[in-house]
Design a protein that fits this description.
The chain has 129 residues and is α+β, with helices and mostly antiparallel strands. It has one domain: Ribosome hibernation promotion factor-like (Double Stranded RNA Binding Domain). The protein contains two helices and five strands; from the N terminus they run ββαβββα. It has a five-stranded mixed sheet, covered by helices on one side. α1 runs parallel beside α2. The protein is elongated and about 45 Å long.
Amino acid sequence: MTKQSAAIVPTSGMPTYIRSVDSVLSSGDRQYLRRKLEQKLRKFAPAVERSSVRVEDINGPRGGADKRCRIKVVLRGLPSVVVEELHESLQAAMDGALNRMERAVRRATDRRRTKPLKGHSHALRAPIE
């Protein structure tokens, strides 16, 4: 039977749900994750509705690259961003997922800003003489 612990954490005014399967996260790890999420999502706050983090040890005591950190960020008017990182170290899995999440959210929000509006042509036109 697996134990799960969860907490809703306000991050930049948006709800963040942190879930730890089999109590993988210590209170220090939770605080670290909360602080890093705040730092990385703050600049995208207007575009972010909510986020969730799931951390688990997928192999249990067998070892190996078995710590998984999965982060999902729900964006306003865009598809959600989901990233996952596996590593032997929980800290490395969290850091890797946080960095990938930041890049993916940046790409998604940048695409929205650079995508032309439907029905409008942004092609350069020669002046009519």
